[in-house]
């Protein structure tokens, strides 16, 4: 196992409240949401476009850019039978051969270094999803700060163990997975001595229906598996991602493209740069708004407390005058008796002359 000291869990036992360091950036409930911009195949086979996406992700304030490291030959084989084709009714890639789709979508391995170099120059973390052990070995040569296990690979426990054995944080996406499969993957990672595990709630459909997001499951997953939980989101827009923060998501991953109108293998469910910037801002706002589980006046409301309503003498009165609705009213500020005491005060006599603008008190009647 290598680099165990590079990224550490705060707290020996980890758990849902652990803070995991990824490339020096804290990820956990006590830190602002960690935003990953997933490039996937949205470079459309152009290194220049890939670098443009990196610049856009950095400008938007994302914490990391993520690639997918595979070739068509490491993820499938060149066979044309029905089981190697997507269903005809698939909303994006109907009828396509797996081999052709992955050949189009893959990021050439020789592009990783210039992409990672630019990301580092711009202050952006860069890592990837490996799809076989050769990808892990290659990414180790680039000293990535973390690994992401894709939803379809969660059942490849040897791959999980291979990535976890590097000592780097492991982010496991759970689209399609059962409780048992998630448990097995988390335990496979931990079996290497690596407790730096983050699990992502995920709906592995493209695009995903928000109604299938089941965000209420996020705290359930955190408690069930004893790990911080984030969201890998394939819905359109940022609504589901922002909402996930209220349920304890510590990380959000969204696919990013320069322009949906220009097309691309994943562009239909990807965010454009301005939307990514909105995601960064609004998830941070949602996290800040969580506050504490308490009810009552906030420190920031102290000045407002002075200007609640209370009973004041609103006309000059003489000793012996009765309290009436004309000379005592509920107004701002809050130095007088509570408004609801007027029914007790009404008809009582003032014991002294009182000037207009005096806070009402029991001593005056």
TrEMBL record:
<dbReference type="InterPro" id="IPR051690">
    <property type="entry name" value="PseI-like"/>
</dbReference>
<dbReference type="InterPro" id="IPR036732">
    <property type="entry name" value="AFP_Neu5c_C_sf"/>
</dbReference>
<dbReference type="GO" id="GO:0016051">
    <property type="term" value="P:carbohydrate biosynthetic process"/>
</dbReference>
<dbReference type="InterPro" id="IPR013785">
    <property type="entry name" value="Aldolase_TIM"/>
</dbReference>
<dbReference type="InterPro" id="IPR020030">
    <property type="entry name" value="Pseudaminic_synth_PseI"/>
</dbReference>
<feature type="domain" description="AFP-like">
    <location>
        <begin position="310"/>
        <end position="365"/>
    </location>
</feature>
<protein>
    <submittedName>
        <fullName>N-acetylneuraminate synthase</fullName>
    </submittedName>
</protein>
<dbReference type="InterPro" id="IPR013132">
    <property type="entry name" value="PseI/NeuA/B-like_N"/>
</dbReference>
<dbReference type="Pfam" id="PF03102">
    <property type="entry name" value="NeuB"/>
</dbReference>
<dbReference type="InterPro" id="IPR013974">
    <property type="entry name" value="SAF"/>
</dbReference>
<dbReference type="Pfam" id="PF08666">
    <property type="entry name" value="SAF"/>
</dbReference>
<dbReference type="InterPro" id="IPR006190">
    <property type="entry name" value="SAF_AFP_Neu5Ac"/>
</dbReference>
<dbReference type="InterPro" id="IPR057736">
    <property type="entry name" value="SAF_PseI/NeuA/NeuB"/>
</dbReference>
<dbReference type="GO" id="GO:0047444">
    <property type="term" value="F:N-acylneuraminate-9-phosphate synthase activity"/>
</dbReference>
